[in-house]
Design goal:
CATH class of the largest domain: Alpha Beta
Shape: globular
Number of domains: 2
CATH superfamily of the largest domain: HORMA domain
CATH architecture of the largest domain: 2-Layer Sandwich
Distance between the termini: 75 Å
Largest sheet: 9 strands, mixed
Radius of gyration: 23 Å
Number of strands: 16
Length: 389
Amino acid sequence: MNRTKLKAKTSVRPDQAMLTAASSIQVVKTLISSGFGCITWIRGLLSDDNFVDGTLYGSKSDEMLSASSAQGPGQVSSSSTKVKVIKRGFSTEADSLLDYIDGIYDALDKQYLKSFVFAIYLDEENPNNLVEAYTFTISYQTIADTDIIAPVMSLATSISQMDLVDAEDPVAAAAVNGRVPTLGEVKRSVRLLVKRLISVCQQLDPLPDRRFATFKLHYNDKTPQDYEPPNFVAGDPEKDRFYFSTHGVSQPPERFSIGGVGTGQHGALPSVQIEIASICSFLPSPEDNNAPFTGHTVTSNPRSDFVVKETKRKADNQAQLEDAERRRVVWDAEPFGNTEREKEAANTPLGIRRKDGIGSIVGVVRHTGGAHAVPGLDEVRAIIERFHV
């Protein structure tokens, strides 16, 4: 007869639960900061001078943080894990991004934050028409044996379209069980996050030189109607809706997912899931991708003539704007769910972009499941011509 030895149930004291909740918020902030720094660095959104290497510390007060300063008196150990952190005071662009992140942290502290979108667009007159979006979706979990709620970042599942599968995330497991995560656990989670972001971002085509960035927050049901975090203003669900636009229904945005629902002894773990979507592979390239490949070479990289370089930059920018006018098939860029039906709906076009709004595509049925009749590219062109868009 087999016997299973059960662990004795250990209750979580209220003060320990409060400490765990505070630590969970700090861990999520550290992971968001690390992830955001990694994205902006790899995608070349800021020059290298805007970044500093941050270090993870453990402290006597059980806090976890990402910092670039020397070890303080309350910090008992540091790790060799380095993360790219945007530094304040070097450029107005970096300071503006950090101001937005501070507003996001305010919503996280109050447990109002459901998700936020870091969006990249090309036309400053049309900030809703995106070329790339990074969506961080937050969920919260009640700490075991208490009524205290804490956010947890779980990176326990794989990246879609990639073969990276990992075991249960230790930080998520610690928080759900009412325990402050250790420096080693946070270090492993940060390394996992950065590794996955690098794997995805290196697959994406380069962003155009001229680009703009914005943020959008989504709140949960407990958020007061009049709440807006610092540096944010209320938006309109329809007028401020994010979308992608491509040349045809055969060009859906590339989508990747990092994190998601993990598993643990209390059932599904909460998560901060990062959704990445990009249409950069469908944009005009400054390189001649149709030229025959003849090999590679090493050059001394002589300094480019400023006038020639500036002329080419302006021509590339104009080509991007003209291409944006020709991209008429619209795809949703707002956060979507995790079910197969919801993901299928995200890969179905919203319609055709017209002067008076978005019109439906004849023959395409958009819903959360079932088969879709999708016309070919020639049919879409015929529809566009009929709408005179």
